[in-house]
Automatic annotation (TrEMBL):
Species this protein is from: Lacticaseibacillus baoqingensis
Coiled coil segments of this chain: 74-129
Taxonomic placement: Bacteria, Bacillati, Bacillota, Bacilli, Lactobacillales
Keywords: Coiled coil, DNA-binding
InterPro entries recorded: DNA-bd_dom_put_sf, MerR-type_HTH_dom, MerR_fam
PROSITE patterns on file: HTH_MERR_2
SUPFAM superfamilies xref list: Putative DNA-binding domain
Highest taxon in the source lineage: Bacteria
Domain HTH merR-type, first and last residues per copy: 1-69
Name assigned to this protein: MerR family transcriptional regulator
Length: 137
């Protein structure tokens, strides 16, 4: 199949497939005599794998390392496992940060009338005082 068909099948834009190839996230794609990429199921699986790992938050650099380990002839399972564990720790930290922000917003909403309104009134007063001082100078 050509790159357009591969894009439709994987949901990955053609430009991203080209980028994945350029960055070594997928193997070099064979081309026809006319220079058209000839994408087979093996490449489709690699595109889907790269897509899934990027969706899991893995950086290009980490994914390149993982792919390099996978493509190497020797057994690199422990190094691959380590990279995945590092990625999991990164994603869990991001999740925890996001959860803390969500919890904070829940608190702000629950205490909007007794906290936010008063806090914003104080901020407006400080802004007004600052503006008055600026105009006097």
């Amino acid at each position: 199949m050509n790159i357009k068909e591969a894009s439709e099948r994987t949901g990955v834009p053609a430009a991203t497939i080209r980028y994945y190839e350029k960055e070594g996230l997928i193997p070099n794609i064979d081309r026809s005599a006319a220079g058209v990429r000839a994408i087979d199921d093996r490449i489709i699986r690699r595109i889907n794998f790269a897509k899934q790992m990027r969706n899991a938050g893995m950086s290009i650099e980490s994914l390149q390392r993982y792919i390099h380990l996978f493509d190497a002839q020797e057994n690199n399972l422990e190094a691959q496992r380590t990279l995945l564990a590092e990625q999991l720790a990164i994603m869990e930290e991001k999740r925890d940060d996001l959860q803390a922000a969500i919890d904070h917003l829940h608190w702000k909403l629950a205490h909007f009338d007794d906290h936010m309104v008063a806090t914003e009134a104080e901020l407006r007063e400080l802004e007004s005082q600052h503006l008055d001082e600026t105009l006097r100078d």
